[in-house]
Amino acid sequence: MSSGLSETRIYRRHAIAGLRWFLTLWFPIVYAMLIGLLVAGAYVLAVIPPHQGIRLVAISLPAWILAFALLTKMLVGFRQGIRQLESSFGARIQ
Fold first, then answer.
1. CA–CA distance, 39 with 41 (Å, rounded to integer)
2. Coil, strand, or helix at residue 11?
3. Which pTM does this prediction carry?
4. Of 91, 86, 75, 94, whose CA–CA distance to 22 is shortest?
């Protein structure tokens, strides 16, 4: 079974080391951006009237939770894909 990661440009150029580099760079940046959006939303709540704040929280908080959950699921899948590539590469060498 071939992993979708083996067909990416970064894998073709840099192999598993490139995928690990992407993993350690990209995911923390996106997590930091999501946390930044949450903090910005908290600051906005201090400025806007309370009735609009309830609407903002009702809309943005579930969207933020969904985005965080999807990013975490993507991170787990990416790590599993790297493990599959490592095991298939190790099996070819031996």
1. 5
2. helix
3. 0.77
4. 75
Interval 33-49 mean pLDDT: 90
Q: In angstroms, rounded to a whole number, what is the distance separating the alpha carbons of residues 22 and 10?
A: 8
Listing DSSP states for 24-84 in one string gives HHHHHHHHHHHHHHHHHHHHHHHHS-HHHHHHHHHHHHHHHHHHHHHHHHHHHHHHHHHHH
**Measured distance CA(51)–CA(34) in Å, rounded:** 24
Please report, rounded to a whole number, the percentage of residues in the chain having pLDDT higher than 70.
90
37 to 3, 30, 73, 79: CA distances (angstroms): 33, 11, 20, 25
What is the rounded distance in angstroms from the CA atom of residue 74 to the CA atom of residue 27?
A: 9
Of 81, 72, 92, residue with least CA distance to 31: 72
What pLDDT does 1 receive? Answer: 40
Instruction: Give the separation between CA 14 and CA 30, rounded to whole angstroms.
Output: 22
